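Batch manifest, entry 17 of 40.
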Amino acid sequence: MEKGKVWLVGAGPGDVGLFTFKGYKTLLNADVVVYDSLVGHGVLSLIPEGAKCINVGKRANHHTMPQWRINEVLLEEAQKGLRVVRLKGGDPFLFGRGGEELELLEENGIPYEVVPGITSPLSVPAYNGIPVTHRDFCSSLHIITGHKKEGEEYNIDFKALVETKGTLVFLMGVTAMNDICTSLIKAGMDPDMPAAVLQQGTTAKQRRVVATVSTLKEEADKAKIEAPAVIVVGKVCQLEEKFAWYEKLPLAGYRVLVTRPKDLISSMSEKLREQGAEVLELPAIKTVPLEDQSALYKAFSEMEKYSWIVFTSPTGVKVFFNEMQKQRLDIRALGKAKIAAIGTGTQKELEKRGLYTDLMPEVYDGEHLGKALAEVCGGNERVLIPRAKIGNREIIDALACKGVLVDDVPTYDTVYEKQDIIDERKEFEAGNIDCAVFTSASTVRGFAEAAKGLDFSLVRAACIGKQTKAEADALGMKTFVAEKPTLDSLVELVIKLKQEQNQ
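Output type: structure tokens
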């Protein structure tokens, strides 16, 4: 049997945008993923379909699986000849016990690699407007674990730390905050030294309390700060108001669920993230080309009879041209047929193939596409519509009224899918998701299938168009519809929803 391999991959502090490119590429090739509680949901949603997932649930004072057993799991899975990714919050070698996990692999001759991650003592202060070094205030940075066993004294030379006059960042120190601050003051630190505690940095639940070493514990208690959080001590903390940038973004602090076919998610999510949202990508549906494409192949052989080819989705374009390629056909096979597209997403997919649309409706839905096409048809035309197996009849009905002959050819099917890593129902019931974004009626149905048992009145649904809204309305969601059926208009709607919630 081929020998397996282990990759220790740092998942970063929470924001999926801070996951490294190498980490992402490594994760996509995993057979097994062993992950802990500090890995952000955005990164978890990138785990490839079919990978075996093992949650070891590590967090301060609460381990689903003891460290020695985690070490054994990595060895056992690698010995099966599998590619094993150990996904760890932050960086594997910064208080992540990555070295311990490698020891057993080394002893047993299992090959491994380490993929560093962006670490919280640098990134979390940065997202809170605190530069951990600044030439006017300090010339050193010190990262210390604030974790200690109950009843034991710290094995830390606090006097030496104070004498560095540098920035101090304590990880895993929330429960021991009083001991840390008291020890620093006893070691000679000015009680009025600026200090901050930063909770869930780089995520939508990011919060901070800035005070002094002598008052930080009291102020943190008032604000009900909880782990995970980092403590920063130093004069740089007084820059937080001046340099704070994250909360100025339109969707800062807003957590959005995006449901689209997996291969179409990224553009919607990217637009939301640019506005500051934390995006949870959970594909509720996937599109699968039909095995039997005989009807489409028949259309290929009779292409000269079609006046129009109508595309109703980017997926329809992809499947159509993939099947043409299989038949060794190029765009010359389209003859003189004109091209109609339902909207800009479909139009862009056609333009990638060097084709420009002859018709696109002002409103991007089936009803308006059918009406626009009927207006330019005389009644003797024949129209090919290669699309999803279950498509609405609005286009066909509009053309039938004009006497146009339509070949409605199914080329792909829409399948509902559910992942088991993130519990959508639990997230909504806990109030952890501010808004769900739906780009088609089928994604609403897919979400409903994945979140069975959820009280859908808890869902604020941002819908791309009226058909999508109608599907969400039927489930009892609180629905809102974009002014135009475009991704940009949908983002504008989400920003508006956030503003209304904050009023």
